[in-house]
Amino acid sequence: MNDLIKLGKKRTLLISLSILLVSIHTIYFYNVSVIEVEPTKLLQQFIRFLLTIGLLLMVYKGKNWARIIAIILFAFGILGAIFGFITTDTYFLNKTPFLVMIFVYGMAVYHFSFSKSFKAFFESQKTNITQAPGLYERQMQLDKFWQIVETSNIKSHGDYEQQQEQLKKELLLLNPPEIVAFNNTFKFLKGSIYNWDFWAAAYIINGGCSDDCFSDFRGWLIGRGKQIFDNAVQDIESLATLEDTNDGDWEGLSYVPSISFEEKTGIDMPIGIRQNMIISGDEWDEEGDDLKNKYPKLWMTFEEN
Fold it and tell me: For 195, phi and psi rounded to 5 degrees?
């Protein structure tokens, strides 16, 4: 649990406690101000108090419907307190409870509506990560995965940095388990092309390619979309037709899912599935003419690199 979530949890508990204290004081203030306590009225107040506890508990557990109802009720509470403050004919000091109500309910409305710490805590409660670890081993369906990738590609107009921003926007529209599912599919596809042919392509295109470079290349290639990816799987030399290789600056796209998840929830993304790290295929020798002979189309297109 990171600091933002801890802060959100702490403030949520403090505000909830303050609301309950205001409710208790309101019940007490009303009953001491009347000549005779009405049992029916007291019972109604007690039931409302229990409902308030239940509502705040549901907000704490990450129920969005409860958060919306709480915001509406506390907004009405502010209006009621303002009305009471204006219309009550008594000394200013005796109106202090109304000011306290306005302050507490105002803080509650702000916290539940706009606070970044509450949003982080609320999302962490809603995802319930620790209770459902198997949920984060699922993969996204390929059609949906490629649709998200294609959308980010189209909206970025070929700009790789912009594509990363567009992909993040698309992922933030998903719920946390869906973001992990997207990342699992991303890792599966990335691991599926961990072979010597694709490393050769990255090496030739870039004029050399380390382990980290090859990892970034595979993430970038997935970002080119389904057609280019599938064509490369069928024939690695189809990459010779690429019009733009971003000058070998391939880093970034692989990090977007985890960044999106953390921004969405305020916590680190679960590990999910393990990516394949066992390379396959026939190894080539970077010295001599091995690459030139094995991948002539790629070599002819990018030999100047």
Answer: -145, 170
